[in-house]
Write a structure and sequence with these properties.
The chain has 284 residues and is of the alpha+beta class. Helices cover 25% and strands 20% of the residues. It contains 6 helices and 10 strands, in the order H-E-H-E-E-E-E-E-E-E-H-H-H-H-E-E. The strands form 3 sheets. Strands 1-6-7-5 form a 4-stranded antiparallel beta sheet. The chain has a 4-stranded antiparallel beta sheet with strand order 2-3-4-8, with helices on one face. It has a two-stranded antiparallel sheet with strand order 9-10. Strand 2 and strand 3 form a beta hairpin. Helix 1 packs across helix 6, helix 3 packs across helix 6 and helix 5 crosses helix 6. The radius of gyration is 20 Å and the shape is elongated. The protein binds a DNA duplex (16 and 16 nucleotides) through helix 5.
DNA sequence: CGTAGACCCTGCGCGC
DNA sequence: TGCGCGCAGGGTCTAC
């Protein structure tokens, strides 16, 4: 479900509901996710703490938790939606916590009686805690590359990252050590906008093309963010991914349909086990 | 070293 | 109608 724009939309809709709340307790309903959920550790690091805010790094959501006493250190509740995760704030009903949802693996009970609910049918998501100071050094984060919407991301960055590497550009663009947050949808979309063939070797891309690609990545993500922001504004109230498919896509998922620019049928190929969509006329 | 492929898990839509 | 197959937006590990 989520790529970077969607995760950012979730962050923006959750943050006002969560900031200032206090975590009462964390309930693990199903611990068997990609990394097992540990209810005892989650409670040790989160229960009784006030939520200072919600940040994002790559596709991870970071819930900042204040120390309950000056002797303790800030912690962070890290959440990843995987392929099918949904985070919603749910209201208490008649003084009772809301009834369990299907695939609701984690429930963070808040002092107001509301809960932060994590549902994830495919169980590729993650939830764990860390001392806030250890985030950057943690193996989940230490290898991550630049944020695509930051000033550090441009054509020169891509060109430097590609030096000494081989292979096609599309999987390269999805390599989180190069740039984070570019998932399977927006990798295809950005290459279309930039006019670059997804199979083109990273060794055969000019500086001008790297510039164009970096601009395309930024544009595609920002456009999706703008559209997601307007169509997903009730996300936190439990309406999951309504509006997701309203984000206009040029080639992704459109095999056989006419290219919006030249009319040739959109093609699909599989690269590194993932579908890639492109126009053979517009992308070289 | 870097890259390609398998794998984690469940649900859905399609063709037969 | 029922069933099997392929496919799905992420990330990590292993084998080459």
């Amino acid at each position: 479900m989520p790529e970077l724009p969607e995760v950012e939309v979730v962050r923006r809709t959750l943050a006002p509901h969560l900031s200032g709340e206090t975590v009462r307790r964390v309930e693990v309903r199903a611990e068997r996710l990609r990394e097992p959920l540990n209810e005892a550790v989650l409670n040790r690091d989160a229960a009784g703490r006030r939520i200072a805010g919600v940040r994002r790094r790559a596709k991870y959501l970071l819930v900042d938790l204040e120390p309950p006493t000056a002797a303790e250190a800030p912690t962070t509740l890290v959440l990843h939606l995987g392929m099918s995760g949904r985070l919603t704030v749910r209201e208490a009903a008649g003084g009772q916590p809301p009834a369990p949802l299907p695939h609701e693996h984690l429930v963070v009970h808040l002092a107001s009686g509301r809960v932060l609910s994590f549902c994830d049918p495919r169980r590729f998501g993650q939830a764990f805690t860390l001392p806030a100071a250890d985030l950057d050094a943690d193996p989940h984060f230490s290898h991550l590359g630049v944020e695509p919407l930051s000033d550090d991301f441009d054509g020169a960055h891509l060109r430097r990252a590609a030096a000494g590497r081989r292979g096609p550009v599309k999987p390269f663009l999805m390599d989180a050590t190069v740039v984070v947050g570019v998932g399977n949808i927006y990798a295809s979309e950005a290459l279309f906008v930039a006019g670059i063939h997804p199979k083109r070797s990273v060794k055969r891309i000019s500086a001008a093309r790297w510039d164009r690609l970096a601009r395309a990545v930024r544009q595609v993500l920002e456009d999706a963010l703008a559209q997601g922001g307007t169509t997903l504004n009730d996300f936190a109230d439990g309406d999951g991914n309504a509006g997701y498919f309203q984000v206009s896509l040029s080639v992704y998922g459109r095999e056989g349909e006419p290219c919006p620019r030249c009319g040739q049928p959109v093609r699909r190929v599989v690269q590194a086990g993932r579908s890639t969509f492109y126009c053979a006329g517009c992308q070289t």
